[in-house]
Design goal:
By secondary structure, this protein is α/β, with parallel strands linked by helices. Helix content is about 55%, strand content about 10%. It has 16 helices and ten strands. The protein has helices at about 25-30, 35-45, 70-80, 85-90, 100-110, 120-135, 140-160, 170-180, 195-210, 220-230, 240-245, 300-305, 310-315, 315-365, 370-395, 400-410, and strands at about 10-20, 50-55, 60-65, 95, 190, 215, 235, 250-255, 275, 295-300. Strands 7-6-5-8-9-10 form a six-stranded parallel sheet, with helices on both faces. A four-stranded antiparallel sheet has the order 2-3-1-4, sandwiched between helices. The longest helix is centred in the last third of the chain and has 49 residues, at about 315-365. The two termini are about 20 Å apart.
Length: about 425
């Protein structure tokens, strides 16, 4: 399958890093916002990279694209983030051609997620794809591949129970709170920041705890009020954060800042306080753990929860993998077809040229020659001949390269290569 993945001397690569080897701080160094994504895509276009999709979530940063060498993609990533090549090499992975395709299928279907079966990643892939399309950085290979991954994700979600139970890090956060905070509906919960996972956690908390003491604080009050209205939360001023923390039993931090926004200095209470840091990079300074009443849990800790839900989900992996194999086989078949499509097209054109010459000759020879009927019959014969050749080339026992060479030789198609 390797040769047909090439695009004008380039190979298809997946380069990146994820929660598996890179901790929150390192992932934070390589996180890419929308503006940086656009800059990466534009620079890639200028450097002659024909197709590229960029994905950046709290758990992973990945580039999928065509390059002569993976370092072209690694360089792009490092130039537009705070990460260095040395740092990348310590925790990174590079997949080429078939392995890169398999990796995207695994990522897009939640099999590589921090919490197995977390389908939030597919929306990130769709967004990255949309952004690349806008910048004209999607070739037919990439379009077909991403659509195949979306299809696989949809089927796995609908046909298996791999996403039953907790479906995301935000729900795992709620599970954690429910399991460790007794009488949670009577406790004071504080959400600081409006990051996506924080908002989702908040929505799930409202749904599952029936708690009416949830306070939201954000540096931008307008943003907080918009979200608070949706979830029926109470908004407090950022200036009051210290007293609100003192009043809280659970603090959820989802601020999305580059440096810690919560530190030991802000905590002035002796009662037990559970802090969930749902930010990448970490937004809660580790010095809070020096306080005996504080329990700090980070995003990475939540993913390590091996509850019954996750064990049950693992049972559905073989079913999910067989769906992936089925859709991947269709994609491989399409790739094979693309490999010999130019030869079949050239063959068809050659046969049409022969047909037209013959019809012209017959028209001159016979005054009652039925040109329309001859044209219909000839076209049907041409279609049958080309179908035979196409089926021959599709056959897994056929050496496609040798057959293509022979067809080109016999029908003198060299000029159409």
């Amino acid at each position: 399958m390797e040769p047909q993945m090439r695009a004008i001397g380039k190979y298809f690569y997946a380069i990146g890093l994820s929660y598996k080897k890179a901790d929150a701080e390192v992932r934070g160094n390589f996180s890419i916002n929308d503006e940086a994504k656009n800059n990466i895509l534009r620079q890639a276009k200028n450097e002659g990279i024909p197709s590229l999709v960029v994905i950046s979530t709290c758990n992973r940063t990945e580039l999928y694209g065509f390059a002569e060498h993976p370092f072209q993609l690694i360089k792009l990533l490092c130039e537009h983030t705070h990460g260095t090549v040395e740092e990348f090499e310590k925790v990174a992975y590079v997949h080429k051609n078939t392995a890169a395709v398999s990796h995207l299928f695994k990522v897009g279907t939640g099999l590589d997620s921090q919490i197995l079966g977390d389908f939030e990643i597919i929306s990130q892939i769709k967004n990255g794809f949309k952004q690349s399309k806008k910048e004209n950085m999607v070739n037919p290979f990439m379009e077909r591949l991403v659509n195949a991954v979306i299809q696989a994700s949809k089927r796995i979600k609908n046909e298996t129970e791999i996403s039953s139970g907790a479906t995301s890090v935000s729900f795992a956060a709620v599970q954690y709170i429910l399991a460790r905070v007794p009488h949670v509906s009577d406790k004071n919960l504080l959400l600081f920041g409006t990051g996506k996972i924080g908002r989702n956690t908040c929505e799930n908390l409202v749904k599952h705890t029936k708690n009416e003491h949830i306070v939201l604080i954000n540096r931008t009050k307008d943003k907080a009020e918009k979200i608070a209205g949706k979830f029926n939360l109470l908004v407090k001023e950022y200036a009051n954060i210290q007293s609100e923390i003192k009043n809280s039993d659970v603090l959820i931090v989802a601020t999305g800042a580059q440096k810690p926004t919560i530190s030991k200095q802000l905590i002035h209470s002796d009662k037990p306080l559970l802090i969930l840091d749902l930010s990448i990079p970490r937004n809660v300074a580790l010095d809070v753990t020096e306080l005996p009443n504080v329990t700090l849990v980070h995003l990475d800790d939540l993913s390590k929860m091996t509850d019954r839900t996750l064990r049950r989900r693992k049972e559905h992996i073989p079913q999910a993998e067989s769906i992936i194999e089925e859709i991947k086989a269709e994609f491989d078949s399409w790739l094979e077809t693309r490999k010999f499509a130019p030869t079949i097209k050239a063959l068809k054109n050659k046969l049409i040229t022969l047909k037209e010459a013959e019809i012209n000759l017959q028209r001159k020879k016979y005054s009652d020659f039925d040109e329309e009927h001859a044209d219909i019959v000839s076209n049907r014969i041409i279609q049958k001949i080309t179908n035979h050749f196409a089926n021959h080339l599709k056959n897994e026992h056929t050496s496609a390269d040798e057959s293509i060479e022979l067809i080109q030789k016999v029908f003198q198609l060299h000029q159409n290569k």
